[in-house]
Structure formats: structure tokens, C-alpha cells
Write a structure and sequence with these properties.
The complex is a heterodimer of chains A (326) and B (145). Helix content of chain A is 32%, strand content 23%. With 326 residues, chain A is α/β, with parallel strands linked by helices. Chain A folds into two domains: 161 residues, Peroxisomal Thiolase, Chain A, domain 1; 152 residues, Peroxisomal Thiolase, Chain A, domain 1. In chain A, the strands form two sheets. In chain A, strands 1, 2, 3, 4, 5, 6, 8, 9, 10, 11, 13 and 14 form a twelve-stranded mixed sheet that branches. In chain A, helix 6 links the parallel strand 10 and strand 11. In chain A, helix 1 crosses helix 2 and helix 5 packs across helix 6. Chain B is mostly helical and 145 residues long. The termini of chain B are far apart. The chains are: A alpha/beta (326), B mainly alpha (145). At the A-B interface, helix 6 of A face helix 1, helix 4 and helix 6 of B.
Chain lengths: 326, 145
Amino acid sequence: MASKKFNNVYIKNSFSLAGPVEKQGSIKDYDLVMDDYYFQAKTFEQAEIKMQKTVIDNLLNRSKLINSEVDLLVSGDLSNQISVSSYAASNYSIPFFGVYSACASFVQSLITGADFLDNKRKGNVICVTSSHNLHAEKQFRFPIEYGAPKPTTTTFTATGAVACLLTKEQTNIKVESYTIGKVIDMGCKDASHMGAVMAPAAANVIMSHLTELERDINYYDLILTGDLGCIGSKILSEFLKRAYGLKMKQHLDAGCELYLKSQEETYAGASGPVALPLYLFNKVLKQKKKQKILIVGTGSLHNPFFVNQKLSIPAVAHAVSLEVNG
Amino acid sequence: MRKEEYQKLVSEYTPKENKWKNAVIAFLVGGLVGFIGQVIVAILQNSFGMETTEACSWLCIIMIFLASLGTALGFFDSWVTKCKAGLFLPTTGFAHSVTSAALDYRKDGFITGLGSSFFKLAGSVLLYGIISGFFLAILGVIFHG
């Protein structure tokens, strides 16, 4: 069993930075937006480091905290050896843990942070995640200016960074429980169809979560998956129905919701670890309509070498249950 | 659920690419590129008094320059995305693949970035082009002496 309940771990604050394509999407009131992909840095890679630094600085300011008052910094991103997170963390005198579950990294950082705080009387943990479209394209796909034609199932790596503060102090957003997912490989080899790669992992962790905590699927007002995209979301619903006999009534996928349908360059929707927290903090939690929310981060655990060697792609998903009051 | 069943489920939900539409677009755009090339050759022959071979060499240089300039100015990639094989197969595509890789790696060092990644995409075209040229030459010698 890889589920756990918490008594008092809460999300206190968050700070979101969104990229140039994201700011034209379905959410208009991000804390900060970028005018271009360079974000006044020399390269895209350095821009992503600056993005993480910007959200951490702003979160510290907003929460009126100094470095020594934060017990732990947990960050994740998509770059090789998660170096963006490490370089960003080198600016702070805060103990650091780097995490990687591809696009499920944000949820993994929440789980790690909340677990760390669970047995403490007080404490603060900052969870950070980021992704950068052009940095990811360069690492995983063709050169950016090549404009290689892509199939409609492709997802578009979201650009942005989000930092959030976990604390023991009571707030209106409670981190209620989590379930760690298994790595699932259903034989998909297409790295441009990540929704199909990740949907079974998402379904599996949802099922485990409900079984282990003895809950019905309708217990949740909203199941928010990370970045399955519009096509992957449909596959998830169908998979849950056929494999487990579960019918989701309240489901949204952050990747599918983040952009407008008119943004054709985004194909099947957003991907990247930042898609889920961007949508969670700037839409779902701001609207305050849902009380019980299950967030399911989904990660496609491929790297270009194994894709070229024609291995099928494993995926993982982790779930965290949030309870919102007032 | 077994893997085969899942693959079936995935294909039910995966939109089919319209291959005929892509082929027609590629045919028209590729043909247009060829037509423009022919016009340039004719101009070079008639106005500059060049021989066909010389005019064709100049044509290549002009096309490569235009495609690379378009890539550097940042609009050629969206044309390639729309026109697909119509633009990435002719000489324009070869030039574009080299320039786009160069742009990607230009800040990663002259040797470690630009130099080593310059032919990231075009490398296979060069390698297999040279190999097939070699074998075709051998066939040419055997059959035509």
C-alpha cells in the first residue's frame, strides 16, 4: 500500500509564472507572465533557471519568509539531470531535494514535502516545478526552427514555473492524502502520443487510491489529471470504464484546459510538469467551487535514446487529495 | 486489460491523419518550388548568358540562401509545418535543416555545440546520399562502361 493520510499539512501560498503562449490561453490572471522565451537570459536553459528563481523569490516575499525559515526546497523539471532545479536551488541557503517523475514531478514534490512535514510540529517546505517549451523541444525533439510536422496527438510543452509553500499552519487548502503510483508500460512506443502512454498509469493510481482509502469515485468533486491532453483524457475515461468499471463524472485535464481551441500550435493540449499546477492554482483553487479535489500528475518516463531504440514507453502517475474550505 | 486490447482502444481514439491531403499539399508546394527553380534557371540563362550546368549551380546557391535566410528570420519553420514534405524534401529543406540545428546549438560552444550538432538532421541525408551515389556509380560503370 502506497497511500497515506495527513492530519495537518496545508498549502499556504503559491506563485505562478506563465510563458508567452500560456498567457494567451484560457487563464488570464497569472501572477507574472513572460514576454518572450528568453526571459532576459542568454539561453532558453538559463531562462528556465531564472524562471524558477523568480517564482521562489516571489513566493518568499509573498509569504514574508527568509531562507533560514524554510526547512526544505523540493524541485523538479524536465531538463537532463534536473539541472535547472539544482542551478536554481544554488541561489538559496535552503536544504534541497531534486525530484523527477517527468510531468508528474510537481505531485511528487508535494508528496515529498508533505511527508517531510507530517511528523513535525511546525515547518515550511517550498515545492517548485518548471518547464520550458523550447528547452524541452531541443532536448527531446527536432531543432526548434525546423518546424517538423507533427501529428494531432502531439502535446505542447507548457512554459512556466510554479512555487508553492507547504506548512503546518492551518489554511483553507489541506493536503489530505496521497497515493504513489506504479510504473506502467502498456506497449506504446509513440513519443508524440504521450496521452496514450500515460492514461493507463493515471487510471491505475486513481483505482489504487480509491481502493486503498476505501472511497467511491464520486467522493471527489473534481479529478484533475496533469497533461494527458484532450485525446489522452478520452482514452483515460474509456480505460477506467473498460478496465475497472469506473465512470468519472467530474474530470478535467489541465493539459486539455490550459489553452484555447483556437491556439492550433498547441495540438492536443499542454504537457510538462508545470501544466497541472498552473491550472490548479490559477483556475481551480481561485474559483473555489470544488471542495474535494484529487490531483493526478502523469509522467511519461521516456528519454530520446530509448525511443530511438524502439522500446515502449513506461509511465507513472501519482495522486494527491486536496480539501478546500471556504 | 492486455496490451493488445489497449492498443486497440488507443487507435479507436487516435484521429487519423489525412494522408491524401498531405500528399496533395506536398505535391503542389514541391511542384511550385520546382517551378520557381525553373524560372530562375531560365532567367540566368537568358539574361546572364549562363550554360545550363552553371545556371543550376547558381540556382542551388540561391535556393539554399533563401531557405536559410527564412529559417534565420524565423518564418520558414511555420511554412514547413504547413507544407510538410513539399518544403522539407527539396534543397530548401536540406538548407533549412542545417540552419535550424545551427540556431539551436549556437550558444553551446563552437565545437561542442555548433560544430558537432550542425549536421544533426542533415547528416543522414549526406551519409546515405553519398553511399547511394557510390553504388549508382558502380552500376553505371557496369552497364554503361
